[in-house]
């Protein structure tokens, strides 16, 4: 695929980054939460959605109670460990969480910048600086974090890499690039993927994109489905959903690939949409690479 923006290059590099994350496992496995611990995964924006996926994976696999919180809304509960996800390492709310946890709760931070403040605040640090990005929009840091934890939970990464490469090679559908509105759906861990996909559309091109648990979509949100709009399902759809969406005139998208690899294609479509609209997806309006609050 042609490379025009930093984010293009970062999207293309994901298979390599996933392989590097997988290769880290022997070195960093001891830094990550042990089975049986009560763990809170925290982050902001994209990292919050990644946290949702990680918490769902960990608990579903029987490793212990796992929660996902946006960093500004972490409730005071007993945790055995807090795992903070932050590409920049400078996000105000994440720093606040780590500062409050010092001396009370063991912390692990996964970051893309080993010179950032969180490195000194956390008890343990996972270095994903190879997946750091120049674009404001996150792509490879988020998915590399997912690959790291999938490896940690014992899943093979090679098949994911192969599918991601296929998602990078498939021609883009011009109708999806030009769609008026997109809704992303998921079930279980793919709900976090759906939220992230919608965020990519909103960030890169200021487009109307929504995301929901697939079973809840018919409890109201389906009302906006109509011609010129699309609904993208990550993973297998609930029985009957495809037909109900199609009956509205909207397009239903369901690909038989791993949702992480499917997200790669969504990233490409989001960037292509921004370019078609004359926007710079590396510099979304109203956004900066790190959100640092002064009050």
Q: How many helices in DSSP terms?
A: 11
Given this structure, which CATH class of the largest domain is correct? Alpha Beta
How does the helix and strand content classify structurally? Answer: alpha/beta
Question: Alpha-carbon distance between the termini?
Answer: 42 Å
The strand count comes to: 9
Shape: globular
Spell out the CATH superfamily of the largest domain.
Glucose-6-phosphate isomerase like protein, domain 1
Structural notes for this entry:
The protein has eleven helices and nine strands. Helix 3 (46-60) runs parallel beside helix 6. With 295 residues, it is α/β, with parallel strands linked by helices. Strand 3, helix 4 and strand 4 form a beta-alpha-beta unit. Helix content is 41%, strand content 15%. The protein folds into two domains: 6-152, Glucose-6-phosphate isomerase like protein, domain 1 (Rossmann fold); 170-276, Rossmann fold. The mean pLDDT is 94. The longest helix is centred in the last third of the chain and has 18 residues, at 259-276. The radius of gyration is 19 Å and the shape is globular.
């Amino acid at each position: 695929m042609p490379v025009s923006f930093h984010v293009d290059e970062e999207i293309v590099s994901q298979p390599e980054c996933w392989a590097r994350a997988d290769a880290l496992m022997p070195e960093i496995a001891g830094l990550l939460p042990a089975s049986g611990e009560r763990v809170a995964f925290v982050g902001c924006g994209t990292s919050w959605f990644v946290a949702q996926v990680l918490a769902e994976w960990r608990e579903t696999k029987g490793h212990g109670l796992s929660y996902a919180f946006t960093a500004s809304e972490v409730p005071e509960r007993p945790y055995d460990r807090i795992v903070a996800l932050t590409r920049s390492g400078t996000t105000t709310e994440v720093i606040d969480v780590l500062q409050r946890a010092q001396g009370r709760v063991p912390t692990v931070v996964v970051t893309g910048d080993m010179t950032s403040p969180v490195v000194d605040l956390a008890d343990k640090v996972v270095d994903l600086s190879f997946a750091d990005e120049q674009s404001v929009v996150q792509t490879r840091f988020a998915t590399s974090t997912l690959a790291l934890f999938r490896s940690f939970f014992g899943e093979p990464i090679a098949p994911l890499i192969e599918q991601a490469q296929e998602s990078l090679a498939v021609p883009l559908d011009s109708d999806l690039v030009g769609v008026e509105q997109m809704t992303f759906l998921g079930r279980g861990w793919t709900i976090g993927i759906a939220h992230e996909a919608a965020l990519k559309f909103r960030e890169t091109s200021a487009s109307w994109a929504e995301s929901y648990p697939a079973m809840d979509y018919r409890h109201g949100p389906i009302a906006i489905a109509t011609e010129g709009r699309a609904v993208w399902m990550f993973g297998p759809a609930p029985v009957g959903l495809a037909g109900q969406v199609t009956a509205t005139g909207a397009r239903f998208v369901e690909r038989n690939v791993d949702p992480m690899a499917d997200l790669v294609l969504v990233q490409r479509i989001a960037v292509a949409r921004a370019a078609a609209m004359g926007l710079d997806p590396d510099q979304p309006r109203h956004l900066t690479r790190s959100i640092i609050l002064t009050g």
